[in-house]
Amino acid sequence: MKRSFSLFSLALALTLGVALAVGAPLAVLAQKKDDPVVARVNGVEIRQSDVDIADADIGQSLPQPPGDARKEAIVAYLIDVAILAQAATAQKLEASPEFVSRLAYAKNKVLMETLLSETTKTAATEAEMKKLYDESVAKMQPEEEVRARHILVKTEAEAKDVLAKLKGGADFEKLAKELSIDPSAKANGGDLQYFSKGQMVAEFSDTAFKLDKGQLSEPVKTQFGFHIIKVEDKRQKPLPKYEDVKDQVQAFVVRKAQAELILKLRNEAKVENLVKKEAPPAPPAKDAPKADPKKK
C-alpha cells in the first residue's frame, strides 16, 4: 500500500549546482605543485586543474568507466579542444562578433557562479546551520504516529474469516504471510512500521488511529481491498537529529544566502528590460448612472 520557503528565484534555480567552468579556457587556474601537466598540444600545457574544470562541466554526460578511463576520456577531450582552439586562433576567429559575444556571456556566467560559490563558503557555517535547525525544531508541532500490521484480502467475507482466526488465537504475523495479498507481507508479516495520519489512505488511517495498542479492527474497506488492522504501538513522532538532517540544513542555508544575495543585488541595480512589457494600466471606471428621483 502506497504511503502518501519560497525565496528561490528563477535565476537561482538556473545557477545552483552548475559547474564553475562553462566555456572556460584552458589553464585558467594558477599553477600549483599539485597541479601537474597531463598533456601538451603544440607546447601548450594542459593541467590537472583543466581536467577538474572539464569534469565539472561535461562529466555528468559521460559514462562512468572503471579506473582511469574517465580521466583519459576527459584529457582526450581537452586535447581536441586545444587543437581546435589553436586552429580557430590561427584563422583569427577571436575577432569575430560571434566569438566576442559568446566569450562575454561565458565570462559573466562563470563570474556569477564564482560569486555564488564564494557566498556558499561563508554562509554554511556550523553556527548558522545549528541555529536554523534549533529554530525549525522549536516550531515543530507534536505529531502522533502509529505502528500497525495489516492483513489485506479481496473480499469482506475473507476479512471476517481472518478476524475470526485472529480472535481464536492465530498469530497475526504468520497469518499475514500466508493470506495477505499485500506483496510486502510475505517478508514483513504485514508490518507497516510507524506512520503519521496523512501517510495512509483516509479509511485505513482513521481506523488505525482510533484503535488502542494491541487492538484489532473490524474489516476496513479501501481502494486496495479489505484490511484487518492490528495496532502494535503508538508514540509521538521523534524529532529529527541534527546529524541526520545536516546535509538538508546546509543546502537550505546555502540556497537562502544565494537567493538573498541575488535579490539584494537585483534591487540595487538599475535594470532596463526592453523585452518585458509592463502591464497596461487598468481603464478608468465608468461613472455609474445616477438615479433620478424625479419621475416624469
The side-by-side strand order for the widest beta sheet comes to 4-3-6-5
Q: How would a crystallographer describe the biggest sheet?
A: 4 strands, antiparallel
Q: How many helical stretches?
A: 10
**Classification by helices and strands:** alpha+beta
Q: Runs with pLDDT <50, length 5+? A: 1-31, 288-296
Q: Tell me the fraction of residues in β-strands, as a range.
A: 5-15%
**Mind telling me the C-alpha Rg?**
32 Å
Q: H/E series, N to C?
A: HEEHHHHEHHHEHEEH
For the terminal residues, how far apart are their CA atoms?
76 Å
Percent helix range? 40-55%
The dominant shape is elongated
**Number of beta-strand segments:** 6
Overall pLDDT: 84
Give a description of the structure.
- The structure is a single chain.
- With about 300 residues, the chain is of the alpha+beta class.
- Among the domains are: about 10-120, no CATH class; about 145-235, Chitinase A, domain 3 (Roll), CATH 3.10.50.40.
- Helix content is about 45%, strand content about 15%.
- The chain has 10 helices and 6 strands.
- The protein has a 4-stranded antiparallel sheet, sandwiched between helices. The protein has a two-stranded antiparallel ribbon with strand order 1-2.
- Strand 1 and strand 2 form a beta hairpin.
- The N and C termini lie far apart (about 75 Å).
- Mean pLDDT is about 85; it is low at about 1-30 and about 290-295.
